[in-house]
Amino acid sequence: MATIRIQTPFESWLRPDAAGLCCVPGGFHIDPARPVERAVVTHGHSDHARPGHNAVLATPETLAIMQTRLGDGAGRNRQALLYGAPLTIGDVTVTLRPAGHILGSAQIVIDYRGQRAVVTGDYKRRTDPTCAPFELVTCDLLVTEATFGLPVFRHEPDTREIARLLASLAAFPERTHQVGVYGLGKCQRLIALLRRAGYDRTIWLHGAMVQLCALYENLGVRLGDVRPVSAASTSLAGELVLSPPSALGDRWSRRLADPVTAFASGWMRVRGRARQRGVELPLIISDHVDWPEIIQTIDETAAGEIWVTHGREEAVVYQARKMGRRARALALIGREDEAE
Amino acid sequence: MKAFAELLDRLVYTPQRNAKLKLLKDYFQTTVDPDRGYALAALTDSLAVRLPVRRTIMQLMEQRFDTELFRMSRDYVGDTAETVALVWPERFDAASRPALRLGEVAEQIRMMDRARLPEQLEDWLDRLDATERWALLKLLTGALRVGVSARLAKTAVAELGGRPVNEVEEVWHGLSMPYETLFAWLEGTSPKPDSAGAPVFRPPMLAQPIEDSDWASLDLADFAIEWKWDGIRVQIAAARGEARLYSRTGDDIGMAFPDVLVHARFDAVLDGELLVVRDGAVAPFNDLQQRLNRRQVTKRMMADFPAHIRLYDALLMDGEDLRELPFAERRRRLEAWHAEKRPAMTDLSEQLHVASKLDLDALWAGARSEEIEGLMLKRLASPYLAGRPKGHWFKWKRAPLSVDCVLMYAQRGSGRRSSYYSDYTFGLWTETDGRNELVPVGKAYSGYSDAELIELDRWIRGHTTERFGPVRAVEPGLVLEVLFDDVQRSSRHKSGVAMRFPRIARIRWDKLAGDADRLERLITLIKSPL
């Protein structure tokens, strides 16, 4: 007689509730959208790391980022957990593994009664000089993000995009190049990529980026000569300025020399998106997995069940089912689709 | 294809003319023949592709890609060709992909057998990256639409040799792609291409707007006076049995006007106004617009909107270049020539005679019939000079009309103006269902100074009621005096009227919104209600 192993449905111990994704036997939420008793936070972006939790568990880098951005709101009790160190909470074991998204970003690996779930948070699989590389973890349930979950999203090699930016700097030496970047992660990665490509001039920063760049430096990420735009004595013709996307083509940019507006984001793959932004030089540089990488991850984790969160769930669910997996969309509140 | 694709990709997002020119020049300088020549052909819309490309790519997609995923992708992107370029399943990685040259593609499409298209297209798409696939599909599915006129592309090429664009225009229509002789001439390695009697375009002589201060130094006895016709300026060039019709900027628009060209059996280059004339009467400009920007024209179109050229000058006749002669002599020759040849669908622009400036003023003040835009003054002694030389030809446009409107919406500009709200939609008061409300009547983005733009921008930011992306709705609180040349009925606008060339004359900080004009007043300014 064959032994029949009865699997607990994953929903009996991991499920969405009003605050977000809840691990019931562990008594914690992952990236909750509202204040909770115990939160496990994948990374420091504001739609994942919210203020006001009682206890927060995260990597030391994520805790440092939360401290910088949220101050007193960063959680009353903060517990740092290093990558790869298992922590037992009641009946579950939690391990953090690098997600490759930004500095400190982690996948949450949860083992419970012989079942393993991996919650990726935001992740990417390409090399990023500013953070630890993504580690693949095989599992039974994969909860994956799907920000770029459509076949149209295939990110170009970042070396190609950096080369385009440098070519434009050479072609328009009388103009400032103003690149819109998300202040945490994308900004520092872009600087690191430019340094790798041999760009050793000063890189000028919008005021909103200064503090986070200093934090990265403190955490050991070398960014070279970066300075606030407010310290410049000219209109920065021929120079490179990084600013939040919201400052592109707005009043702040009037101080710059006839700026070429660039925007570094995975969304730039689609022309309508770039046009909407009024961008002159769209750079396809993303901190998320693209479509082929989502499929690759579903395949390599060997998970039988796939839950898809924030992004274009429909196409990923369809694709996962085509690959013979059980799959469902997980509608979580409070995620910013456009946050990159 | 790589450099060409990168060029198109940059151009499509670049709003400033000078930046476009720089990108084009860099491309032509660093790209070899024949690739750059085919790029020039594509940019000047000279590379006509008549292959069923759209149908073929859909068939290929069905074979190579999941239909459901394609549908979802297409819904997201909104454009089929772009979606195909993005999702095309790649067979090679970047390092092992066999290269494809623009020249190879261009030469193939000129002589390809339709039956080979699917196989050829699949091979090309496999050899390109996403940006190149997008560029290829743009090239194959018609006009590039990257915001570059043929004139701008030619200007960039002319600048390679430090020459004015008019010199390129003069030889252009005697050349054929991939324009190796043109590039060689501009780079100084061979002589100027010889158009050898072909009906090529000659840069036209343009008029300057007359200013109040000009009158003092003008003697009316030195000038010929004509109506300024409300059509489009054209040049008809015919030689050795071949005839062409050019726009003012040198675009060959002949394919839309075979009814005119069929009668051009002469050897001359003539200057005139293209109009629609029915039973001897000039039709409204709107009728002419039905015939413009077409690659082909039906018999029906030609019957409903018969084209006509009203001639006013002659540049060449029977092999003789008349451009050095004074206007009076050219006109005399044109009259004699026309009396003898009488080509159908043409006539001569009437010469007007006035005894005094007062007579002229009266003539100008009365110039408000449908087909007349104002008056032209041409110096009798002037040779035919390319460009807009000062003091020779003057245009005196009829007085613009004006209404006081209320600013309703403001949109951010592009390029240098991208941080300013510089495009304005304005409205007039009208009563709808018993309520007094504003209805939009037009849009303008010129007529104000830089200092005024800053003030307007500040006012708009302080009086915003709603935001929609780059557009802000504002409180009805700012009155703009708007000038326009003409107003017509229009079923496409909620107000039922459309203004021609609206521009801001003054910002009426002194006026209250309630004192602005009513829609009814604008409607009374329509000349011939249809």
Which structural class fits the helix and strand makeup of chain A?
alpha/beta
CATH architecture of the largest domain in chain A: 4-Layer Sandwich
Remind me, CATH topology of the largest domain in chain B? D-amino Acid Aminotransferase, Chain A, domain 1
**Integer-rounded radius of gyration of chain B:** 27 Å
Can you count the helices of chain A?
7
Indicate the structural class of chain B: alpha+beta
- The helix content of chain A is 10-25%
Outline the low-pLDDT stretches of chain A: none
Give the termini separation of chain A.
54 Å
CATH topology of the largest domain in chain A, anyone? Answer: Metallo-beta-lactamase, Chain A
Largest sheet of chain A: 7 strands, mixed
- The total beta strand count of chain A reads 19
Structure write-up:
The complex is a heterodimer of chains A (340) and B (530). Chain A is globular, with a radius of gyration of 21 Å. Chain A has 340 residues and is α/β, with parallel strands linked by helices. The longest helix of chain A is centred in the middle third of the chain and has 14 residues, at 158-171. Chain A has seven helices and 19 strands. In chain A, the strands form three sheets. In chain A, strands 7-8-9-10-11-18-19 form a seven-stranded mixed β-sheet, with helices on one face. A six-stranded mixed β-sheet of chain A has the order 1-2-3-4-5-6. In chain A, strands 14-13-15-12-16-17 form a six-stranded parallel β-sheet. Chain B is of the alpha+beta class and 530 residues long. Chain B has three domains: 2-140, DNA ligase, ATP-dependent, N-terminal domain (DNA ligase i, domain 1, Orthogonal Bundle); 208-397, 2-Layer Sandwich (D-amino Acid Aminotransferase, Chain A, domain 1), CATH 3.30.470.30; 401-524, OB fold (Dihydrolipoamide Acetyltransferase, E2P) (Beta Barrel), CATH 2.40.50. Helices cover 34% and strands 24% of the residues of chain B. Chain B contains 19 helices and 20 strands. In chain B, strand 18 (486-489) and strand 19 form a beta hairpin. In chain B, helix 2 (17-30) packs across helix 10 (150-160). The mean pLDDT of chain B is 91. At the A-B interface, helix 2, helix 5 and helix 7 of A face helix 1, helix 2, helix 5 and helix 6 of B.
